[in-house]
Amino acid sequence: MPVRISLSPFTLPATTLAATATSLPSPHRGSLSLFRNGRYPVVPAHRPNQLRPHHSRHWPPRIHPRLRRLRCRKNRPPSRPQPLLRAHFSSLPLQDLAAFLQSQSPSPPPSSAPSDGNLTAVELTTRHMYSDVEITSHSPEPLEHSRQFNLDLAGPRVLFCADSAVDLMLKSGTSQYMEFKSVDASFVCGGDGKLATVPDSRSAIFKDTSLGLAEKTRLSSFFKLVEGHLKSDDERKISAEDLESPFIAFLSKMWLPPKDTMIDDVVGHWTMYLHDGIILYAIAMADYDQSDTDVCKDVLKTRDGINRLALYHSSVGRFSNALGALIYPIYGQGELPQGFCRRAAVKGCLYFSGSYKGVKVASGQELFSHQMVLGPSFIVPSPLFKSSPDSLQDVRGKVARGICITKTSVKPGVSNCLVIYPPKSLYPEQVTSVRVLQTGSSLAGCPSGMFVFYLSALCDDANQGKKSLHAAVNAIFSVPISGTPDHGSTDESENTQVKPTLLWSALYIQEMTTCSFESISSTPMPDGSLNYNDILDATKELFHKMFPDEEFFPETTFSEPEDGELDESPNGESLDS
Amino acid sequence: MHGRPRKAPTPQEEKALALKASKLRPLQSQFLQFHHNKTYTKEALEVCAKLLEANPEYLTAWNYRKIAVEHILSHSETETETDPESIKSIFSEELRITERALASNYKSYGAWYHRKWVLRKGHSSIDRELQLLEVFLKKDTRNFHAWNYRRFVAALKNRSDEEELQFTTDMISDNFSNYSAWHSRSVLLSQLLEKKVQGYFPKEKVLTEEYNLVHQALFTDPDDQSGWFYHLWLLDQTVKVESPLLVSTWPPHGSSINVSVNGCLDKSALSPMTSFDLSTGTIPVILYFSEAVEGVNSSTINVESIYDTSQDLIWTPLSTNNSGRAQAWLTHLNFLEEKIHFLQANSVKVSAGHSQGITSLNGFHCTHPTEFEFTVYVQPPTPQHADLQCLEMISWGDENFHICETHLKESSPIKFSDQLENNEDNKSTAYKCKAETIANEIALFRELLSEANCKIGKLTLARLLMAHDVITSYNKSSDTNKSVHFEEVLDLYCNLMNSDPPHSQFYKDEYSLVLLQQLTSNPESLLRHCYHYRDSSSSSIHGYICLRLCNLSISRIGSIKQLLWIQMLDLSHNQLHSIEGLEAMQLLSCLNLSHNQIGTFFALEPLKLLKSLKVLNISYNEIGAHSVDTRRYLCSSPLSHTVGSDWSFSEFAIDGVDVKTYWEAFFIFKDLKLTQLDIIANVVAEEKFKVFLLKLMPTLKWIDDVELQ
User: Fold this and answer.
1) Has UniProt tagged this entry with the keyword Acyltransferase (chain B) (predicted)?
2) Which residues contact B7 (CB under 8 A, 6 or more apart)?
3) A543, B38, B220, B237: which has the fewest Cβ within 10 Å?
4) CA-derived radius of gyration, chain A
5) A82 falls in which pLDDT band (50, 70, 90)?
């Protein structure tokens, strides 16, 4: 069987797709318009007749009213195009997700492709992007409601309100196809295993009951320092030397009491740890243990640390109806690619990808183009590329991901929250932080009364990743012993908080690949970070290499009044001054 | 909403403003026409409404509406429209107009007042008001109009103080940088504490909780001032002694006073500190309270003496304002010559607080019974001494001041009148609690200052340290380990003066008060500044003891209660710009204020009350240098119609001098009986002025060291 190369741009990160699309205003490049009814720009390879050349002046204007209607419809159900087309960024029903993870089988041996004139057809192979899939079901309940789930394949992933992805959505108008909800709270796990609120704003510090008074002063004065630095006030700038130093060194420098008090006692050490935990892992979202230079693969520099703090802080209060710094799309991550595609469709763009010389679709149709972008799981066989014999991309390590379903929240009364387990907080050898995103039914990712948890941790190998995930799962949930699935932790003493009982879980290891650009370009796999910034940057780079003269996402102006879901408050920042 | 710099209007904005004004003008004149003609028709009211919507700050229009509503109501009564529905509709129309006005400017005083006026009439529902307030507080959480109005509505609705307190808690946890919320909290808590509502007693417990809350704000952002204001209020609640106390007297308790009848005491034999010249035939008695009080009179103060009964005594407040309230009160005991028993112990007993009547500004009564006793010895006249020696010129040169002899120190009769405050109550648990709270606060703010360099934190620490000293000083039993923080506080103020130059005058004043408190805190340190005045060029022995507080950079006078006995005071070479409080030193006869920063004659107003003042040195000051005195409207002056109606300038008219230009000097000096005045090196001190002074004070014998013929 020939490998079905989906021409669908959904193998690209959504942003790539739209970027590619908007930048091709005319058919001069011999590009093709793949469009079906103005809805979901899918490319069904088995219906090649619908492919038609694109001429921008022939763009049917009647598309617009339909889209408008679509947008105005209230309580829009989640759109469900063929899930696999969105590949690694999709949100899937529970059974589909399980099936998808397990279906990542090696590609069949290439069939001999006939030579056509002086062109040689080369079969593409795919490779495992997911491995060590471990699906456990402790209760039949989630499976019964399988279709009511929208589980993210590349979770946990959220958006910071001040993210460049949010800016891009606002700029391109994509935001009007999506609704977001704010993540209500962030917690960080302390050394005692208890979850503490992340005091991420002035009023959060004020309300926090776990911090000591002096710690409050230090924490807020540190935030002020960052603010002062960012306001490009020359006096308050952090020195260039400091900016190049590791962030943790800078933090401990700031944290040391100005007077020569010795912090040799346990309490002093613990408070230091706590603060570094909050700033490094819960706000700056560092992955690796920053205090252990042996295992730390990615030492966060002060400059980057400050930028991440800045992102966090400018996120708080950017939108008047978002409580914290983080937002999450209703119906799941898969909405983002959809949104970009729709926007692209409305704007009369192409979904395009080409091949080195051409692509032969599974149905036999041949498409020719100078450039082609492939999804990350494809391997182009060696004859074409001498330089990189096996694959287009570098494998960049792995990320362990997990999806867990429960019926109770990790914190009573909190529906959506982020929980950070900094390195060493779960077990002494824990090298990377484990991030857990809990989403409730208000985000439409699960049936009401249930909660979905996404976990992720960077790892070198499957064992390490699985160990982190298992430790986190055991820390958060009470896992029913097989055979007695309904026995929770009810026999625990009453004053300890009852952990949520695990109903269903899927743990897997995902390969990470970088973006590559050659004559056949390839997009990256979802990375291990919490937001889309790195993916967006990679996309931008790819775009600029492919189309050096084009602007990435020209500004879109709206002719119709928007009832935008994102309600930006222009004076949100000045109100609390 | 806050902290936005003012921007100069752009030409477009100016144009828009001008356009708006041109539209308003005809409307306004039309409205005024109606107002003058007392027209209250529907049309007139509509014009008024339109005007107010455009400009809610127009108070005349609001007043017009009030008159109009009253007019319509009073006239409708004669007709048939007296049903409650129509009255209600009239008022709801008024509410609607205020709402519209507030929508255009939610800080309009007139609109808020009008709304209150309408609601007070009681014809409208108040259910909507809280919702409305929510809208306004959402726009600006600090809007004090809205907070004010909220308290008004809560009172109308009989919402409990607890509920309102919870509201402030919620607002504060939302954003603690909210002066209005903190203020509202202090108002509500005062009410709850006063009523001793369930859960708000004992006071100490409630205050501790409040301290804990405000600490969260202070430590989260030490630079945000809103919490500090609340902390200051809490500190005041902690330290404050509610009822006023008699803290000091002259003559002091247990003292023996020597007086001479003809002004010539044999001072070599007697302590100069308690010798007193009875040339006037009276002895002053001064009561000094912990705060300004009223109601000191012969019925509230009981005096037992063989010469006087309290009924005959007239107590006068020693204060430069006319409020009738003063910290110091004065009366004179008469020692009439015919009744005097020479060299006999004449015991005088004064008691206060035995009955209510002496009240502070806050309405608290001085309830603590206090009693003091002193003995008066009248020296027999010594005719061999001529009157001459009393009239020697005082020279302030250093050579005339001699260190007090040691025997004087030992036999010092200076009584520190603290003991008047001391009583059993002070040892109660409440005091212990207060002392603990303050000590705890001190420790916390020391910690804060080690974390952050914070001006207001330093100021608070200084205040706390002083409060600590005050509280521990009440508790005499802990005298042994009493820690005194004067040095640390002075350091803090010095530090603040340097780091916060815009407010250095305030810190300097505080510094001065603390320094004086330190100097007067015990007899030893006070005596270190006491000198014997003996004119080296003169053969006579002048018995003054002079308190010399020179070169101390003090800018204000304080600790008067320890200085009531002073007869000669040298405050030269300081930075005094005011001598407020000096009026209580009734025995003062020689005062040196040279080389200070006194800017106007008004600053010398306390001198008017010092009837025994004979020698005054105000040379080398800045009198006359400041053409505008910012305090002028606070002082008694012809401008404020408090004084001057009975002045007869014409008497003092001198050729070529417009006396009215010297009316300030006239005001200060006209009642003084100075014999010696130094006024050289002031801007005002020109020849003409001196002539004027000589005419004003015929008693003068020396002016600027020149003996007058």
Assistant:
1) no
2) none
3) B38
4) 25
5) very low
The domain spans of chain B are 161-240, 252-383, 537-641+652-708
The question of ipTM being above 0.95 is answered as no
For residue A122, the one-letter residue type is V
What are the chain B neighbours of A203 within 8 Å (beta carbons)? 173-176
Using alpha carbons, select from A8, A123, A9, A46 the residue that is nearest to residue A365: A46
Q: Are residues B281 and B338 in contact, defined by beta-carbon separation less than 8 angstroms? A: no
Residue from B460, B403, B257, B224 nearest B343 by CA = B257
Question: Would residue A239 count as lying in a domain?
Answer: yes
Query: Which backbone phi and psi does A167 adopt, to 5 degrees?
Result: -60, -45
| Measured CA distances, A287 to A159, A160, A432 (Å) | 17, 17, 5
Please give the model's pTM, rounded to 2 decimal places.
0.75
Q: Give domain status of residue A426, yes or no.
A: no
CB contacts < 8 A (A, B): 60
The pLDDT assigned to B77 comes to: 61
Of B220, B130, B128, the residue nearest B172 (C-alpha): B220
CB B559 within 8 A of CB B516: yes
Q: Is B14 helix (H, G, I), strand (E, B) or coil?
A: helix
Q: Which residues have CB under 8 Å from B308's CB, separation 6+?
A: B333, B334
Asked if B220 and A202 come within 8 Å (Cβ–Cβ), the reply is yes
Per-residue tokens: B421: 């405050």
A interface test, pick of B140, B176, B220 with most A CB neighbours within 10 Å: B220
B312: left (phi over 0), alpha (psi -120 to 50) or beta: alpha
Alpha-carbon span A212 to A217, nearest angstrom = 9
Domain residues for the domain of A232 are: 201-315
Distance, C-alpha B255 to centroid of its chain? 31
Q: Number of structural domains, chain A?
A: 1
Establish whether domains B252-383 and B537-641+652-708 are of one fold. no
CA distance B256 to B258: 7
Please answer whether residues A217 and A235 qualify as being in contact, where contact means their C-beta atoms are separated by less than 8 angstroms: no
Structure tokens that stand for A97 in this block: 């997700």
Question: pLDDT tens for residues A369-398?
Answer: 666 666 666 666 554 444 444 444 456 678
Contact of A221 with chain B, judged by CB distance below 8 Å, is answered with yes
pLDDT < 70 stretches in chain B: 1-3, 76-82, 260-281, 307-311, 335-343, 380-391, 405-428, 474-483, 536-543, 627-661
Select from A189, A103, A158, A124 the least CA-distant residue to A325.
A158
User: Does the structural domain B252-383 have CATH classification 2.60.40?
Assistant: yes
Nearest chain A residue to B140, by CA? A575
Element (H, E) at A520: strand A520-522
Token output for B548: 């010399």
CA–CA gap between residue A179 and residue A335 (Å, rounded):
9
The CATH number linked to A266 is 1.10.405
Q: Which tens digits make up the pLDDT trace of B439-496?
A: 999 999 998 888 788 899 999 999 999 888 887 776 654 444 455 788 899 999 999 9
Helices (H), A238-396: 240-244, 247-255, 266-276, 302-315, 335-346
User: Are B24 and B54 a contacting pair, CB within 8 Å?
Assistant: yes
Domain B537-641+652-708 has CATH 3.80.10.10: yes
Closest chain A C-alpha to B448 CA, distance in angstroms: 6
From the number of C-beta atoms within 10 Å of its C-beta (0-12, 13-18, 19+), residue A571 rates as exposed
CA dihedral (B183, B188, B189, B190) in degrees, to 10, reads 90
Look over chain A and give the mean of its residue pLDDT values, rounded to a whole number: 66
Angle subtended by helix axes B455-474 and B429-451, to nearest 10:
160
How close A314 gets to chain B, by Cα (Å)?
A: 17
Helices B59-78 and B42-54 pack at an angle, to 10 degrees, of 160
